[in-house]
Design a protein that fits this description.
Blueprint lengths: L8 E4 L5 H12 L3 E6 L3 H13 L4 E5 L5 H15 L4 E4 L14 H29 L2 E6 L2 H5 L5 H21 L4 E8 L5 H4 L3 H9 L9 H12 L10 E4 L6
Parallel strand pairs: 1-2, 1-4, 2-3, 4-5, 5-6, 6-7
The chain binds NADPH dihydro-nicotinamide-adenine-dinucleotide phosphate (NDP).
NADPH dihydro-nicotinamide-adenine-dinucleotide phosphate (NDP) binds next to helix 1, strand 2 and helix 7.
Length: 249
């Protein structure tokens, strides 16, 4: 029983930047072979892969849009062909297209639901059978405090993140008897490119409501993912782990 992930393989969606990048580095440092995906940031992917390999870690990267069902299936197959199994899947890739409902377009809705929610379905579906067969596996889905509390201007994002919670609990019930756990991490305000895009006023308002008085670092979230990837969490499933400095109590 420990946080050592030697002999484990992990697949992380959206691994090139922000929280995903920190997860890739953290799970690799814990001993896992880590595959990660991205949609467009090929340069960052290349440099992350090179950085990990220079430190002696095994790593694969895939340009693969999570919203694309066939691409998810192919990515999972490629990882299985290379490494034979996937022990940990982290559905991390996510986007925002914010705006009050009055201005939110159908395109804004479809893009956010397609990436954030359907993306989780796509990759979970692709690992479902292999994890069932191996009678082990850990699926970790990245939701958000916004999926729990709601947020004006983020109806599409909140719906996608709340959907992830219901989806994960259902899957946890389906897969429990096969030794596969499914959990959710719900970060609060994390300092990444995603939140840098918010207005200063919105950032201050969010921070003001955080009991711990600071934003999360990507590492704070990666630490929770490490716990849920490890044998320390073997009896935890269907759980929503808030990593939000107390924001959503
Ligand atoms: P970033 O915007 O910093 O990074 C997003 C990552 O996801 C990038 O690697 C990006 O790759 C990838 N990505 C985006 N869309 C796709 C896609 N369609 N297919 C594959 N990869 C994709 O985001 P964060 O690190 O801030 O967020 C990570 C997750 O955490 C998201 O699900 C987000 O909703 C959630 N979260 C973030 C919070 C925050 O405060 N930052 C708070 C709560 C939850 P590329 O550059 O190639 O597009």
């Amino acid at each position: 029983m420990n946080l050592d992930l030697s002999d484990k393989t992990a697949l992380i969606t959206g691994g090139t930047r922000g929280i995903g990048r920190s997860m890739v580095e953290t799970l690799a440092q814990a001993g896992a072979r880590v595959a990660f995906t991205y949609r467009s940031s090929a340069e960052e992917a290349e440099s992350l892969k090179a950085e990990l390999e220079s430190q002696g870690y095994e790593c694969l990267s895939f340009q693969s849009d999570v919203a694309d069902f066939a691409a998810a299936e192919k990515t999972v197959k490629d990882v299985l062909d290379a490494w034979g199994k996937i022990d940990v899947l982290v559905n991390n890739a996510g986007i925002t297209k914010d705006g009050l409902m009055i201005r939110m377009t159908e395109g804004d809705w479809d893009a956010v639901i397609g990436t954030n929610l359907k993306g989780v379905f796509n990759f979970s579906k692709a690992v479902y059978r292999p994890m069932m067969k191996q009678r082990s596996g850990k699926i970790i889905n990245i939701s958000s405090v916004v999926g729990v509390m709601g947020n004006p201007g983020q109806a599409n994002y909140a719906a996608s993140k709340a959907g992830i919670i219901g989806f994960s609990k259902s899957l946890a019930k389906e897969l429990g008897s096969r030794g596969v756990t499914v959990n959710v991490v719900a970060p609060g305000y994390v300092a990444t490119d995603m939140t840098a895009a918010l207005s200063e006023k919105a950032q201050e308002a969010m921070l003001g409501a955080v009991p711990l008085g600071r934003p999360a670092s990507p590492q704070d979230v990666a630490n929770a993912v490490l716990f849920l990837s490890s044998s320390y969490s073997d009896y935890v499933t269907g759980h929503v782990l808030h990593v939000d400095g107390g924001l959503a109590m």
